[in-house]
Amino acid sequence: MNETTQIIVSIVFLIGVFFLTQFFMARKYRAAAEKIVNGMKEKGAVSPETAIEIDFGKKNLLQMGVRDYRPKALKALVSAGVIKVTDEGLCYVPENPGQEEEPDQDQDLEIEENFKSA
């Protein structure tokens, strides 16, 4: 094999390894997210009144062992709206996550006015 072919094969191999690691990381995050949601449903945290505190959302710097995917999975679930957070910092899984609350009309008008004035 000449030198150019070796370089091309090496680059293709490295790209393949990169995508494989990304795939397996995504699977780990997805599994952690499913465990979080299922655990919250089992505990009955399906409304603001029954919301619970989630203690693994904070990273422990002294933790040794395998990587804990739950903190980042929790952040992703909150940002996606799958898990809601109350004003007190308690979390719950809404019973109908696809049905969002009605947006505040006044807030929408303020946002539109800010865009028009900018």
From TrEMBL:
Keywords assigned: Membrane, Transmembrane, Transmembrane helix
UniProt feature, compositional bias: Acidic residues: 98-112
Protein name: Uncharacterized protein
Segments passing through the bilayer: 6-26
Region (Disordered): 94-118
